[in-house]
């Protein structure tokens, strides 16, 4: 296996296919958190590696992929215990981003993104708790998918925060991304809608003056519309730019057939302007070109504010709930083994430990409210379009403060799907200087197959 980009912790790990199917002839790699019979996963930390034994069986999803005709080729690097979005590992080094020289690859599924971006494999498995598929996919310029929470079997995968953990995957082509979904989706124990008492439901309804969609429309009447105006101006006036190219493309029989062949368009495509406000104006213009393509697959487009109380508030809720569960999941091992962590990971676990024993009911109730609002807004036939990350990948070797700033910006965008357990696909784009950007679509709960099929039809072939 070609490991010139440092994607693999074990480039020699190979498992032949166990059957035939729609993945015949394709190769894939796995993040070093998946059980592969006889291979001991490191979870990005040498102390984890030495304190665990190799499994005797494959993880459920690894077995399914092998049975569908694909071949496993290599285990890929991850950030320590998956608790980062940067991709810089204190112990094993940083995989090289093939699409952005000198920049971080993103994490924690860093090696999987690099393996796909470098062409070493056709697709790769990662995990996504707080953005660990979506962020590295965007930074490395590949397609990435985080499914509905619980939609894919996660048995045999090292956990981080089970209430948010998902199996995820990346590919260099949208059709491959969709094929992997055909194999894996619907195999999990699909988490049901959160059940709450009638009293809780009544209190929740009282706490909302109106539905999220109504509040959004009302807020749009009074807020400063600078970002919305920029987006609308871009969409309506770039006659000599990307919109003209899109219209010309739609006139061709192939592209026109693609749009008309959709079994069903999305009803409403929501554009979350508060998310777009995190992106530099020059990158907004680039991403708006991609938005033009997506608009062709929807009957309506509506600009909205997705988090009236602020995306930072949503991120803080996510981090609190995630951090408290991370400590509950790994504290016994940490206290017994006393592992050596890199400085940023050590600081993060120390903060997570400080959450132990505290009352998290306010954050839990707020999460239920956000989840209900977003699931109601998305329904079965709407979607939300946001930037995947605030901008191109940062340079390698930044200080801890810069790392945390980058992480916070990415988490403000990635926490949306995480809090509501919704499926999200990230689509690769290029900035004006050629650095990768990511444009994301979030769909309704359980609408994974539809999202992947819809994007495959409306997104231009690379």
State the end-to-end distance. Answer: 25 Å
Percent helix: 40-55%
The total beta strand count reads 11
Mean pLDDT: 87
Given the helix and strand composition, which structural class is it? alpha/beta
Rg, Cα atoms, Å: 21 Å
**Strand adjacency order, main sheet:** 1-3-2-4-6-5-10-11-9-7-8
Supply the number of helical segments. 17
Shape: globular
Which strand-content bin applies to the residues? 15-25%
Low-pLDDT stretches are 191-227, 233-262
Task: Specify the biggest β-sheet.
Answer: 11 strands, mixed
H and E string? EEHHEHEHEEHHHHHHEHHEHHHEHEEH
Question: Can you describe this structure?
Answer:
With about 450 residues, the protein is α/β, with parallel strands linked by helices. About 40% of the residues lie in helices and about 15% in strands. It is built from 17 helices and eleven strands. It has helices at about 45-50, 60-65, 110-115, 135-140, 175-185, 200-205, 210-220, 225-235, 240-250, 255-260, 275, 280-295, 310-335, 345-355, 360-380, 400-420, 450-460; strands at about 10-15, 25-30, 70-75, 125-130, 145, 165-170, 265-270, 300-305, 380-385, 425-430, 435-445. It has an eleven-stranded mixed beta sheet with strand order 1-3-2-4-6-5-10-11-9-7-8, with helices on both faces. It is globular, with a radius of gyration of 21 Å.
């Amino acid at each position: 296996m070609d490991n010139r980009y440092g994607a693999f912790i074990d480039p020699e790990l190979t498992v032949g296919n166990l059957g035939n199917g729609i993945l015949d002839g394709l190769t894939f790699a796995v993040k070093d958190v998946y059980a592969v019979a006889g291979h001991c996963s490191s979870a990005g930390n040498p102390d984890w590696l030495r304190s665990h034994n190799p499994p005797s069986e494959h993880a459920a999803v690894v077995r399914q992929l092998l049975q569908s005709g694909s071949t496993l080729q290599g285990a890929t690097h991850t950030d320590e215990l998956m608790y980062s979005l940067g991709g810089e590992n204190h112990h094993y080094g940083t995989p090289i981003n093939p699409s952005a020289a000198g920049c971080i690859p993103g994490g924690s599924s860093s090696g999987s993104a690099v393996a796909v971006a470098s062409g070493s494999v056709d697709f790769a498995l990662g995990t996504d708790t707080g953005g660990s598929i979506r962020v590295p996919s965007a930074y490395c310029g590949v397609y990435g998918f985080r499914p509905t929470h619980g939609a894919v079997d996660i048995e045999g995968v090292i956990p981080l925060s089970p209430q948010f953990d998902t199996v995820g995957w990346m590919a260099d082509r949208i059709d491959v991304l969709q094929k992997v979904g055909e194999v894996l989706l619907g195999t999990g124990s699909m988490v049901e809608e959160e059940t709450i008492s009638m009293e809780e439901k009544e209190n929740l309804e009282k706490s909302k003056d109106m539905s999220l969609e109504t509040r959004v429309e009302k807020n749009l009447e009074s807020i400063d519309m600078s970002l919305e105006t920029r987006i609308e101006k871009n969409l309506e006036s770039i006659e000599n730019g990307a919109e003209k190219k899109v219209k010309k493309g739609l006139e061709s029989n192939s592209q026109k057939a693609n749009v008309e062949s959709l079994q069903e368009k999305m009803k409403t495509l929501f554009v979350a302007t508060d998310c777009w406000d995190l992106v530099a104006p020059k990158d907004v213009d680039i991403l708006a070109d991609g938005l033009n393509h997506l608009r062709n697959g929807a009957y309506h487009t509506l600009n909205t504010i997705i988090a009236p109380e602020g995306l930072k508030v949503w991120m803080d809720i996510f981090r609190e709930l995630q951090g408290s569960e991370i400590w509950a999941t790994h504290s016994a091992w940490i206290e017994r083994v006393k592992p050596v962590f890199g400085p940023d990971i050590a600081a993060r676990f120390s903060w997570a430990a400080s959450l132990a024993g505290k009352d998290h009911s306010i954050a839990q109730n707020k999460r239920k409210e956000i989840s209900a609002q977003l699931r109601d807004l998305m329904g079965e036939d709407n979607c939300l379009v946001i930037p995947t990350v605030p901008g191109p990948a940062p340079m390698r070797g930044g200080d801890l403060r810069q790392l945390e700033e980058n992480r916070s910006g990415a988490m403000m965008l990635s926490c949306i799907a995480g809090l509501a357990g919704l499926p999200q696909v990230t689509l690769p784009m290029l900035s004006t200087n050629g650095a990768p950007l990511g444009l994301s679509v979030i769909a309704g709960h359980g609408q994974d197959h539809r999202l992947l099929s819809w994007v495959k039809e409306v997104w231009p072939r690379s």
